[in-house]
Amino acid sequence: MYADSTADCIGACEAPMLLVKEKFGRLEKGQVLKVETDKPAVVRDVEDWAGNLGFSIEEQEKVAGVTSIWIRKTKEWSEEIEPTMQTAEQQR
């Protein structure tokens, strides 16, 4: 699937959700962000974040230990208006 931007959260990505939110915030309504990660906790965080805010996960696949998630920006969004959400990594 085509993506307008990619958030590479593979390996030693220190703050994956910050990177995802930064990249997502730059998109226009209707555009797609591809998130790539090799960490199951990041997959859960991205799924929860997108679902809680009503964004559409268009596609998801796992190949050789790397999960790719395509999220469509279906409405206007910015970090300033997002409610605080505890990530799976913070819950540990």
Automatic annotation (TrEMBL):
Which SUPFAM superfamilies does the annotation name? SirA-like
Domain UPF0033: residue ranges: 12-73
Entries under Gene3D superfamilies matching the protein: TusA-like domain
Family as reported in the entry's similarity comment:
Belongs to the sulfur carrier protein TusA family.
Q: What is this protein called?
A: Sulfurtransferase TusA family protein
The organism named in the record is Methanoculleus frigidifontis
